User: Fold this.
Amino acid sequence: EPFDHATDCYFCAINTTGINRKNRQSLQYPDLPSARRPVAHCEDIPVPAFTQLPNSDDEATITDERGDTEEFEYEAQDGPQTFSQCELNDLVRDLSLSKISSELLASRLKEKNLLGKDVRITFFRRRHEDYMGYFCQEEDLVYCRDVAGLLVKLGAPQYDPRDWRLFIDSCNRSLKCVLLHNGNQFTSHSTTLKEKYEVVKYVLDKIQYEQHKWIICVDLKMVNFYLVSIQHYVKKEWPARDQLVPGARNIIHEPFVDREKILIPPLHLKLGLMKQFTRALDKDGRCFNYLCRAFPRLTNTEAYKDTEFQNSMNTLECAAWKSFVQVVNHFLGNTKAANHARLISTMIEAFQKLGCLMCIKMHFLFSHMEKFPENLGAMSDEQGERFHQDMRQIEESYQGRWDAVMMADYCWSLKRDNTAAAHTRESKKRRFMP
Assistant:
């Protein structure tokens, strides 16, 4: 134990003034008797001689006196522990194994006598059958015909359409419709086709949208699909249209979704604003050169917290960046500040001084700021974009064969048979139940 704070206190003896990430290697750590570094044994410091082990009852008494009530979840056991069918199923899900790889893993474990008597190696060939009844296939479309039943089957305690939102987006190969939980506690289902008005209407009819009336989160291109009109690009005191009649005022088709059910995507707005900010930077300036060095390992979230990135900006760039961060944190996140209108106006003025173009995404943000919900972060389209990454692996396993079997197999991978199981190293694989 240290004697005083002046000469023998380890924390008081360290001078951390001026130490940062760049020069932290130059920090000199003190060598004090109260915090001595490990030293090798010698004649002056001999190896301690073993006498006897302490009594376990004494240790328990000491532990109780100190108030140490730490409970250990894992107990060491000498013999090998066999896998049950439920435990093996959850392991296969965490490893994202295909049916063939799952059988191979089970076979190798059986060779080492690590499987219980209830385990069947061939179980994985038919693992999708419990979910086949929830999906239908018509030509190129695979859709869920019983959404409420599927969610209850996956483990949702109850189904309320108001707790879910429908995310629709396309990739290079298909159109996907994903049902996302508003609190992001559960995951989803999907379909395939092309991103066209007729196709989207056909998909919504098949999944019985009129029955559920979910909130829809789509990109700005899809917004026009649902409202079938060209939105205005200038903030004006125009009254909202009472009727959307095809052929009048750029109306092409009849709308099949109420405009109050459309959620403007915050992720697309943030990316659009970041794109305009980057384009307006001085290509020979320090800030732009720093971004060139930092990418592709730097993301938007990391840029928000990177002080070196902000130090490389000039006055106009710094003002625009700070106003953008304020809008992201206090409007496009989980909180909607009371002064959000002033924050957005300040950001637009700073972007104008920087020389940014007034893109359509900035118009959407300024003209429809009152349409955004309070908890926008919990209803963002970022979770839907992540679904593309989740589906990529199973699509590769099925080699482009998009059918009801693939979707049923994907739903099987979301569920966990033993939700209360605890492990020393937890998997980061996404699951339906949190």
About this structure: The longest helix spans residues 382-398. Residues 85-127 form one domain.
